[in-house]
């Protein structure tokens, strides 16, 4: 992998400063024009993206459309339709002590934004944050993943064609390129990736006190209770888990199933996998709808988790076939997994799904709370009280009830993690705000009540101040 030229990175960063200052005054029309250019350029390269994704990890055109194009197109459509409202300053009524003032919040571009994107959804997770950055009036420097070189190269050509480098620039490379970018004092950093790398990004940002949005991951649990619609749960979870062959940050990582319905649920999952991907290992290996693992190293990692679980006594319910040369791991269901198996502590990020029987929902909740907070939690139930209990007693970036993964695509919801699974929110207005400084603006009016608090503090003035404080029911002076 050829690394980006460090001096070019530094010159581009310097050149973007003047643009960022100028773009503070950018109009609605100018911002919408930039988004429209990005949208049109993507659509013009639609077929080329099919080829690039096939070259990188044999992703089908249908999945390219559904999981790469659709989220970005919807993000752009949402921004174009809502940007006028998002940009408008918002007035706020004065609180009791601020009578005689007028206040508003104005949304100012942060300035120069760095976007570091991962390999699992290289287009969506690169251009999605870029939409928010442009909508908010920022310049951007982008570092896509080196693990999807064909897609990264195509994105680089698109960016170079529609933006001067002093506005938006994309740099290909691996860790040294990322480090050269992180050494610079960006106004905001948007990173998507693992919690381990997220800590390094946050440490780099801390050196410059740069604000950050960290979209991380974790082991997102699923609960299927005795009241759940097992057919719908199996159909939806088998989609959410094996989309992109499990290489999804919000994919169900493991499933807790009530013991009374576990056998029926597992059989329903087997039926869905057979209908979608074929009846046997050979059919699934050759199924064009199954994306490959991104490279051999990651294939070996996922295969290692499977081997470790089986050696420790896990039961293979279906799947299990691996082919390292083809970067293939079959959709696999595992049961009776020992607690000390690596798959129970490491983020899987592949097509392996542990299924765990439970009897007591309190124990499941305790297990979830004992682990780092996940990016998502999925609950399948028709029992309203139990749903309320699970949601109230757990913490996660997002939660879906009788659904999975789809909250990522809901443009009016904040998407993000909590603690280990992320910091900050993205998408829609939440992405716009993440890329903006919410600037407080207070204006005086002729009624300057603050003068009542000016020195000298005579006895009468002190009594007045005490009266105001007492009226607010604060402790007496």
TrEMBL record:
It comes from Pseudoduganella danionis. This is Aldehyde dehydrogenase. PANTHER family: ALDEHYDE DEHYDROGENASE, ALDEHYDE DEHYDROGENASE ALDX-RELATED. InterPro entries: Ald_DH/histidinol_DH (IPR016161), Ald_DH_C (IPR016163), Ald_DH_CS_CYS (IPR016160), Ald_DH_CS_GLU (IPR029510), Ald_DH_N (IPR016162), Aldehyde_DH_dom (IPR015590), Aldehyde_DH_NAD(P) (IPR012394). Pfam families: Aldedh. CDD domains: ALDH_AlkH-like. Keywords: NAD, Oxidoreductase. It comes from the Bacteria. Residues 4-440 form the Aldehyde dehydrogenase domain. Belongs to the aldehyde dehydrogenase family. The active site is at 215.
